[in-house]
Design goal:
Chain lengths: ~525, ~230, ~110
């Protein structure tokens, strides 16, 4: 049982290869067997780990810790692993009937799960790089799966930009190896203060963080995300926005908040402003789009900005809020993407102005979409409220400007979802094509998850030993605040956005070419190193 | 034009940062790795080549995923290209009017030499520089030289891809045998004796499996590109 | 001197990425950056003299073998990414008729 993490990595991979090799369709029922097996092993492993905390470090081969590959499982890893198993179960349930004859699709999807589990659990920096590249290649193939012209161009843009980011991460790892003699994360964490004031280690930090911020879609270098979402199937969009981007944030937590913690580089202000800029730019672009999936894609960018504002602050409450927002965002963003997938398929069009009357045509889907929209805008009783109030709790250390920016971002989020919700009203225009029960079941499970975290966050926090008590749910003032947001947002939408001024048109047509994206990346790295070295 | 002119000083600043960082390197250079491997690698693993000892025994887990990324690349390229797997034959026929006779004759000479050299590099990976990955690339090149030989050879691509995936499963199986024979250690040598000559059998076996897998993978990538070009 | 030269190779690759108008040129610039990284890693360890890491006798002074093992993996990963990117380039040419970035990113496909 102490080798359960290895089983998490290899069960999906072996299942994927077996599905590829055998031709019978019945074999694909083995998918659900493997996911159920992983869930049971996960539950037993959590209890096992509570009793034997020494098992958290697994050394492969029994060699010296400095030179062997190790796995280190702590609470952060367990939260992510649980989220991954849940998301993959739901997504496989959603896509089973459509794609059960597409053996290649299920092969790549399950292999992605195995690689992702490996990334979350490994303790070795070079192994992290290998898993990162494996995930990049797999997601490229999944984006280009439909083999249309647009999928190929989105695929190659994604591949080249992300490879550049991973290469810069590798340069940072090289410098750390030569300074500390080992690439084991926990050993470097313990010894970081020895050489942390030399220029070599500072340059290593800049390269590692700069490389990883491409994959995390932070401010100047996020341009691959909307392109990738515009062409991918809704299943892949849900996974890409919900989990793959969070892998980069997980690496960011490990590097910034854990490994370099004792080095005291004081970059918290810089990352806060990068996060705030990301969030504002994301919301501004989201308000100008007319395509459903692009609105959701730009929203992902702005929520990542909010997560960065939480993760990089001084207060432990805000860091906890950022971590909770990662989990929440995975849930509600994938709910919205999966729902949008059903809507697009039924209406055969992607523009908001063409789709009307979802509430009459598909009522249950409409209810689930409303749950998603309420969660993302931070309504009380849903999970977005808990994480946003945790991030906001200390009022950003009394800084008025930061509080105003946070309120503006919330306002923008609410407005753009009012724009999105226009698809729900109106008369019935098309007929439902085929009712797919499994899709609705899977989306309902996620919606229940959102509600559960929203209402019962205190007991859940006590089980996990985390303190969520700063978010007060049954405070009348919070409900009032939310209604004020919705009101102001509706007025803003009616009088500004719906008129479609020229600035909206300009923002819609912005598209950054590949060379300019690289140029922006170089400027971003120089700005980071400026703040680091001066 | 202005973009290019501004770009060069920006890159120059990065270079100056790197040069400043280099001056620190001499003082904090840490050579723990060299000391450890020069004294322990032969006795622990049975290979004279320290690099093979690292990537086949100390860090075997990495090599498994390196083989996996090749597998995914082959599967992805097969899917993206118009190579329908149901077509069995990828014909290596040569454009007779374009290739000079000197090429054909030379390729006929080179083919057995390269094949033998590739197999030598794979099998002797633990005694001299070389190994599974390097030798596999040489064997793949040797098979591709057949493109220049005037034999219209047909290769069943579907069979090659199936064999490659089965080889990956065999690799996983051999790597995890040590869980049963060596008392709970995972991904290391399954032969638990102290004689280094016997331990080297594991390394040779792994090298042969990896070499075959890499060769088959590279050959199938090449046939996909050939098919696209027609 | 050697590490600085290899870093200049990496910077040449990045310069190429930021100014290339052709997709295949971008793919090759990524390969140049990756080759530069491999050379950088191997060259940084050259402070103390040593021979190749084959332990032919006890007490031999070898160079550090870990960078070499890690770079074998990096070379394989780099070649994988190059081959996948080139296959995508071929398909883009079939669909769009040209391989310049500005034609591909803004126009509609022709098939």
């Amino acid at each position: 049982m102490s080798y359960a993490p290895v089983l998490f990595v290899f069960i999906p991979i072996i299942t994927a290869i077996i599905i590829y090799l055998f031709k019978k369709i019945r074999i694909s029922l083995i998918i659900f067997a493997s996911q159920a097996a992983m869930l049971i092993i996960f539950i037993f492993y959590v209890f096992h780990l509570k009793d034997n905390p020494n098992d958290a470090l697994i050394v492969f081969g029994g060699w010296d810790i400095r030179f062997a590959i190790t796995f280190y499982i702590d609470q952060l890893t367990l939260i992510f692993v649980g989220l991954t198993i849940f998301m993959w179960m739901v997504v496989l349930l959603y896509t089973y009937r459509i794609n059960k004859r597409e053996r290649n699709f299920i092969f790549f999807l399950l292999f992605l799960e195995g690689a992702f589990m490996g990334l979350l659990q490994t303790n070795d920096l070079f192994n992290l790089f290998v898993f990162l590249e494996l995930i990049t290649v797999l997601v490229t193939i999944l984006i280009a799966y439909k083999k249309s012209g647009q999928s190929f161009r989105a695929g190659i843009y994604y591949l080249l930009i992300n490879t550049l980011g991973a290469m810069f991460f590798l340069i940072g790892v090289i410098f750390l190896y030569y300074a500390y003699g080992t690439i084991n994360i926990q050993i470097i964490l313990a010894n970081i203060a020895e050489h942390s004031d030399t220029n070599l280690v500072k340059l290593a930090y800049v390269f590692m963080v700069g490389g990883i911020s491409i994959k995390a879609a932070l401010f100047p270098v996020f341009t691959w995300l909307p392109r990738a979402h515009g062409v991918a199937q809704s299943t892949i969009s849900a996974l890409l926005s919900g989990l793959i981007v969070k892998a980069a944030l997980y690496i960011f937590i490990r590097v910034n908040n854990q490994m370099f913690l004792a080095a005291n580089y004081s970059m918290t202000e810089v990352f806060f402003w990068i996060g705030a800029t990301t969030a504002l730019v994301g919301v501004a672009f989201a308000l100008s789009q007319k395509d459903i999936k692009q609105i959701l894609a730009y929203h992902t960018i702005s929520q990542i900005g909010i997560i960065m504002m939480g993760l990089t602050s001084f207060f432990a409450t805000a860091q906890l809020g950022g971590l909770l927002h990662i989990v929440n965002h995975a849930l509600f963003k994938s709910l919205l993407f999966l729902g949008a997938g059903i809507v697009v398929k039924t209406y055969n069009s992607k523009k908001v102005s063409d789709i009307r009357g979802v509430f009459q045509v598909m009522p249950w889907t409409a209810v689930l979409l409303i749950v998603g929209m309420l969660s993302i805008s931070g309504a009380p009783m849903f999970n977005g409220f808990v994480s946003k109030s945790l991030i906001k709790y200390h009022d950003f250390d009394g800084n008025i400007l930061k509080t105003i920016i946070f309120m503006l971002i919330n306002l923008g989020t609410v407005t753009s979802f009012i724009k999105f919700s226009q698809i729900l009203f109106g008369p019935k225009t098309v007929k439902v094509k085929d009712k797919n029960i499994r899709q609705h079941i899977s989306m309902t499970i996620i919606a229940l998850g959102c509600l559960l975290i929203g209402l019962f966050y205190l007991p859940i926090g006590q089980i996990l030993n985390l303190d969520f008590s700063y978010a007060k749910l049954w405070d009348l003032f919070k409900f009032l605040e939310y209604f004020i947001y919705v009101g102001v947002g509706y007025l803003f939408y009616r009088f500004v956005i719906a008129k479609d001024f020229w600035i909206n048109r300009k923002l819609r047509e912005v598209s950054v070419t590949f060379e300019n994206a690289n140029y922006l990346f170089i400027v971003y790295m120089l700005v980071l190193s400026l703040f680091m070295f001066l | 034009m202005i973009k290019k002119l501004i770009l060069i000083p920006l890159l120059g600043v990065i270079l100056i940062l790197f040069m400043i960082a280099m001056t620190d390197l001499e003082s904090i250079y840490n050579n723990a790795g060299k000391v450890f491997f020069s004294s322990n690698a032969y006795l622990d693993t049975g290979s004279l080549n320290a690099v093979t000892a690292i990537y086949l025994d100390y860090r075997l887990f990495d090599s498994l995923f390196e083989a996996a990324i090749l597998l995914i690349a082959v599967a992805g390229i097969m899917w993206i290209s118009q190579h329908k797997i149901k077509e069995k034959n990828a014909s290596f026929m040569l454009d007779k009017y374009k290739t000079p006779d000197l090429f054909i004759t030379f390729s006929r000479l080179l083919y057995p030499i390269m094949l033998t050299f590739g197999i030598y590099v794979i099998v002797n990976g633990h005694l001299s520089p070389g190994g599974g990955f390097q030798g596999g690339a040489i064997v793949a090149t040797a098979i591709l030289i057949l493109y220049y030989i005037d034999i219209s050879k047909t290769i069943d691509v579907k069979l090659i891809i199936t064999i490659e995936k089965i080889l990956f499963l065999i690799l996983l199986f051999v790597a995890s045998l040590s869980f049963f024979t060596r008392d709970g250690l995972l991904f290391t040598n399954f032969i638990g004796s102290d004689f280094t000559q016997i331990k080297a059998i594991f390394l040779m076996l792994l090298n042969i499996i990896i070499g075959l897998k890499v060769a088959l993978g590279l050959v199938s990538i090449f046939t996909a590109f050939l098919k696209e070009g027609r | 001197m050697n590490p600085i030269l290899t870093f200049i190779v990496i910077l040449i690759g990045i310069y190429g990425l930021a100014t290339s108008k052709n997709i295949i040129k971008s793919v090759f610039c990524v390969t140049i950056v990756e080759t530069g990284i491999i050379l950088l890693f191997l060259n940084l360890g050259n402070f103390e003299e040593g021979t190749i890491p084959i332990l032919t006798y006890i007490g031999i002074n070898i160079v550090d073998p870990i960078p070499q093992a890690l770079m074998i993996t990096t070379i394989v990963i780099g070649s994988t990414i190059t081959s996948l990117a080139l296959m995508l380039c071929i398909k883009i040419f079939h669909h769009y008729g040209s391989i310049e970035w500005k034609d591909v990113l803004n126009k509609r496909s022709q098939k």
